[in-house]
Design a protein that fits this description.
Blueprint: E1 7-12, H1 20-33, E2 37-41, H2 44-49, E3 53-56, H3 83-95, E4 100-105, H4 107-118, E5 122-127, H5 143-163, E6 167-172, H6 179-187, E7 192-194, H7 203-215, E8 221-226, H8 232-243, E9 247-251, H9 263-281, E10 287-292, E11 295-300, H10 301-305, H11 313-322
Parallel strand pairs: 1-2, 1-4, 4-5, 5-10, 6-8, 6-9, 7-8
Antiparallel strand pairs: 2-3, 10-11
Length: 324
């Protein structure tokens, strides 16, 4: 039986995430096994508009599953938010014989995939972001590696914070989401976890906690601060002035995006990539692959983009009980 799609493309868009290479590998090798040709689009939608398109074979993805970042590179593309750019992208796909496209990225990347689907290019989207902020899925490619990287860094900071009897504010990534902060706050035994959707900006409460902990002999005070709250350096200065306790801010930044992916990110991303190729071979389009309730499923992109997501309420409640 002939494939509904004979040639597919694959791109990574937006912020890079550990495990993207595993997903690309899953797409390429599964597509080849199904008799399809694969073209790699470099630098996301920006590269698509510039026709930075290469042929890919099994060797193209050899020895990549353990590598961080993305072998196809990535970029943000403002032109693709415009209808003119979207139409140009669809025409370039057709010019290169690309009938189906796998897009690996976040919500913004999904919106581009949605537009291309409406212009006749079969699209499948994979959730690739360290932020865990895509509402339709319990898992996003890169989160597990990023949160473990941050956790290990905070463990090290706590060691030196204890040695100097300091307060330490560690700012983790996540844009306006607080998932990395919440997970690290629990895993690292932080005294405070500041998350955009939950933080009440009551610094006086934090000040009194630091003073009380110091009086009862505690040698450190760890505050995990989400990127969406931010202003860690200024906060450290205010807390030190109010408490008399030496306070340091550390912004972990883009180190959380890099590094060799964990086993979970390698396996889950591989499965998602393989599933994307199979869906395109079956003629499916405008779908997002998600991991929900322990199963891999595919959903309509329109439905996925309409969903909203916040941190798990029970996890947040537990963090308040444990992190003292």
């Amino acid at each position: 039986m002939a494939n509904a799609v004979n040639t597919i493309g694959v791109l990574t868009s937006g912020g890079d995430a550990p495990g993207m290479n595993a997903a690309i590998r899953g797409v390429v090798r599964t597509a080849l096994s199904l008799g399809m040709k694969v073209k790699g689009i470099q630098k996301g939608y920006h590269g698509l508009l510039n026709e930075e398109i290469i042929d890919m074979d099994a060797h193209s993805v050899s020895n990549t599953i353990d590598r961080g970042g993305t072998i196809l590179y990535t970029a943000r593309c403002m032109r693709f938010y415009d209808e003119e750019g979207q139409k140009q992208g669809a025409e370039i796909c057709k010019k290169h014989g690309i009938e189906g496209l796998v897009v690996i990225g976040g919500d913004g990347s999904f919106q581009g995939a949605q537009k291309l689907a409406g212009l006749g290019i079969n699209t499948i989207a994979l959730p690739g972001t360290i932020d865990l902020d895509i509402a339709c899925t319990d898992y996003t490619i890169g989160f597990d590696t990023a949160v473990n990287t941050a956790m290990q860094a905070i463990d090290k900071i706590r060691d030196t914070s204890t040695s100097h009897e300091r307060c330490s504010i560690i700012e983790v990534m996540g844009r306006n989401a607080g998932h990395i902060a919440l997970w690290c706050g629990i895993a690292n035994g932080a005294e405070d976890i500041l998350i955009p959707s939950k933080y009440d900006h009551d610094e006086e409460r934090i000040i009194q906690e630091i003073i009380a902990n110091k009086k009862r002999g505690k040698k450190h005070h760890i505050i995990v601060n989400a990127e969406g709250v931010g202003h860690s350096t200024e906060m450290a200065q205010r807390l030190e002035k109010a408490t008399g306790v030496e306070t340091r801010a550390t912004i972990l930044g883009h180190m959380q995006r890099g590094g060799s992916p964990t086993c979970k990110d390698r396996v889950y991303a591989s499965v998602m990539g393989a599933m994307a190729a199979e869906l395109l071979a079956a003629g499916k389009s405008n779908r997002v692959i998600a991991q929900r309730g322990g199963e891999f499923v595919d959903l309509d992109i329109n439905e996925a983009l309409a969903m909203s997501k916040d941190v798990d309420e029970y996890m947040y409640k537990v963090s308040g009980l444990l992190c003292r």
